[in-house]
Amino acid sequence: MPTVSLIHKNLQFYVEEGEILFDALDNQGEKLPHGCLAGSCGACRIEVTEGAQNLKAPSAVEQNTVESIKEHYESKNGKGSLENRVVRLACRARVFGDVSVKPLK
User: Fold this and answer.
1) CB neighbours of 4 closer than 8 A, spacing ≥ 6?
2) Of 10, 98, 11, 101, nearest to 54 (Cα)?
3) 27 pLDDT higher than 90
4) Is residue 103 over pLDDT 90?
5) CB environment 5-16: b (16+ within 10 A), e (fewer)
């Protein structure tokens, strides 16, 4: 079974292979902000610090939303502030191997 690590809380737990990350976190009592749960609002954005290759590839909707999030984030925090960082939406990311994540504020 894959594991998900929440690095900001030093918490690790097992998840079902193919489980949506948002649901896995919710099942553990870990609440993320959310709105649409369809990949278009971006409220459940996370940073994947390890194991990004173990998540299902993002859909076109998720990619568009993440690009908008990155543009907004970099306009507030400086160009390149997300360089070499992986941003995903927890409501769309399916887990197929070990990952480490933290919320992106």
Assistant:
1) 12, 13, 15, 21, 24, 25, 95, 98, 99, 100, 101
2) 98
3) yes
4) yes
5) bbeeeeeeeebe
| CATH number of the domain within which 80 lies | 3.10.20.30
pLDDT at 39: 85
Domain count, the chain: 1
Token readout for 87 is 């941003």
Positive or negative, the Cα torsion across 5, 103, 44, 58?
negative
In tens, the pLDDT along 49-94 reads: 999 999 999 999 999 999 999 999 999 998 888 889 999 999 999 9
**Per-residue tokens: 28:** 């553990």
Q: Which residue has the tokens 């749960």?
A: 37
Domain that holds residue 28: 3-103
